[in-house]
TrEMBL record:
GO terms for molecular function: ATP binding; ATP hydrolysis activity. Pfam families: T2SSE (PF00437). It comes from Desulfotruncus arcticus DSM 17038. This is Type II/IV secretion system protein. Keywords: ATP-binding, Nucleotide-binding. Residues 29-43 form the Bacterial type II secretion system protein E domain. GO terms for cellular component: plasma membrane. Belongs to the GSP E family.
Length: 218
């Protein structure tokens, strides 16, 4: 354990001693907890226990390694958790990726060249103008133009329509399209807004937020 937090009971995973994520979660459930945080759902057993716990009134927080928010749902399905259990247990998913922040000491505004590849990423017409920002590089940032990092996010709220799609065991792509149609702000969209605000560069967003749906209105 890295930190001792007052009011929080923590259990450290020790596979050699038999304390796996699944075993730890089963032990925690016997303590009648209000909220449970599972560091990571790595296997089918842990996923099944976490979903069952959520369906019996426990508030569960956890992490999964996926490309985007809808991918977390299909990952649980791929692990063998029944679609109806996943549908009834998930309230929402937050996906995030880190991008570099433009150095405030050397930030400058610029206009995209007519043939710049960023134009296609931004779905711009040839005559469209947009002001973006970049770092020239200075001694404050080691001449790289960036200083620090920040997160871009994708927040998926699971509503009734989406629950019906989950029960059908649809693909990640179909879930993503439904989510975007329902108003989800994608990693790409959130990143573009932050680039327009001068917080990061559009090249950073292209580097970390590219998906198969990038050429779709997302």
């Amino acid at each position: 354990m890295e930190y001792i937090i007052k009011g929080i009971n923590q259990t450290q995973v020790n596979v050699k001693a038999g304390m796996t994520f699944a075993a730890g979660l089963r032990s925690i459930l016997r303590q009648d907890p209000d909220i449970i945080m599972v560091g990571e759902i790595r296997d089918t057993e842990t996923a099944a226990i976490a979903v069952r716990a959520a369906n019996t009134g426990h508030q569960i927080f956890s992490t999964l390694h996926t490309n985007d928010a809808p991918g977390a749902i299909t990952r649980l399905l791929d692990m063998g958790v029944e679609p109806f259990r996943v549908s009834s247990s998930i309230l929402g998913v937050v996906a995030q990726r880190l991008v570099r922040v433009i150095c405030p000491h050397c930030k400058e505004a610029y206009q995209l060249d007519p043939g710049a590849p960023e134009r296609q990423f931004l779905c711009l017409e040839p005559n469209d103008e947009i002001t973006l920002y970049r770092g020239k590089g200075c001694e404050k940032c080691g001449n790289i133009g960036y200083r620090g990092r920040m997160a871009i996010h994708e927040v998926l709220i699971v509503d009734t329509e989406l629950r019906n799609e989950i029960v059908k065991n649809v693909s990640t792509g179909e879930l993503r399209q439904k989510s975007l149609a329902g108003g989800m702000i994608s990693l790409k969209q959130d990143g573009i807004e932050k680039a327009k605000q001068g917080l990061t560069t559009i090249k950073e967003i292209m580097r970390v937020a590219y998906t198969q749906e990038s050429n779709i209105q997302s």
